[in-house]
């Protein structure tokens, strides 16, 4: 079965890159720290929403998180 | 003549038009530069399929005035299919017939300085998909104009000469290169995503797009794998419901099922997207 969210995500990357996660702002050291905490399951609940918003709009944040999970 | 995948295949003009068609495919192809370079280098270019060449041959023949080719494209089956698609998406019978009749005219004729519509067919996707998409765009455009006309300003100066339409902003372009479908799908999706809990949306993307294991996602959010699974299902259902609801808000006349929405998103990416 085709992955629906994959199709929607690809669509947004192409037609609304600024909100599809293609934006690639440089991560601050503070955000990198929070992403490390998230990958380790140590990010406080009250901070997860803000970090999630960053992950939805910044491809660098996603790449950084995935790298943490790979390592 | 035979039929393949719903598109009639015409062979009569292939002998003189395939070379031209190949050149057109080459210049319309997303891999144009790559193909051109490999062509110059005498490497084998990424050739279009036989079916694609036949489609281009059919179009080229029709545009050159070949009546048989034109009537193959404008066959009763294609006409009925396109009209049915529009009726199923919210057009009245008369609207569907009028839009499709105009579509056929524009396919082959130059009007008001515009090229025949079929010249814009790039070969990405099938001819059927191109015609369907153009018809849907025109339906959206038509319905929005109807609504627009129903919202004429009522407080205009009665002594002022001219039609009430003069008081309205300039008409939208009827250029088929403007894809209203993309705008509609994007706006509905963005509105939907803005309503979803960002944490659930991130879980959904990490698991379904980036392939993160649900158990690992659970560790990241300090919850069980089953809760991640429930969150993902809930987020997906919310996206479905809110997207369709938003589509109805933007264009209340439009009848679009979720499967249609996803299919149109995929088609849009395939047609207009960058090569990965």
List keywords for this structure.
heterodimer; A: 71 residues; mainly alpha; 68% helix; 0% strand; globular; B: 276 residues; two-stranded antiparallel ribbon; 12 helices; 2 strands; 62% helix; 2% strand; disordered N terminus
Describe the structure.
The complex is a heterodimer of chains A (71) and B (276). Chain A has four helices and no strands. Helices cover 68% and strands 0% of the residues of chain A. In chain A, helix 2 crosses helix 4 (59-70) and helix 3 (45-57) crosses helix 4. By secondary structure, chain A is mainly alpha-helical. The mean pLDDT of chain A is 88. Chain A has helices at residues 4-15, 29-39, 45-57, 59-70. In chain B, 62% of the residues lie in helices and 2% in strands. Chain B is built from twelve helices and two strands; from the N terminus they run ββαααααααααααα. In chain B, strand 1 (2-4) and strand 2 form a beta hairpin. In chain B, helix 1 (14-28) packs across helix 3 (50-63), helix 3 (50-63) crosses helix 4 (67-73) and helix 5 (76-88) crosses helix 7. In chain B, 28% of the residues are buried. The chains are: A mainly alpha (71), B mainly alpha (276).
Label the structural class of chain B: mainly alpha
Name the average pLDDT of chain A: 88
Task: Give the termini separation of chain A.
Answer: 30 Å
Question: What amount of the residues of chain A lies in strands?
Answer: under 5%
Measure the end-to-end span of chain B.
Answer: 36 Å
The low-pLDDT segments of chain B are 1-11, 13-19, 30-45, 155-174
How does the major sheet of chain A shape up?
Answer: none
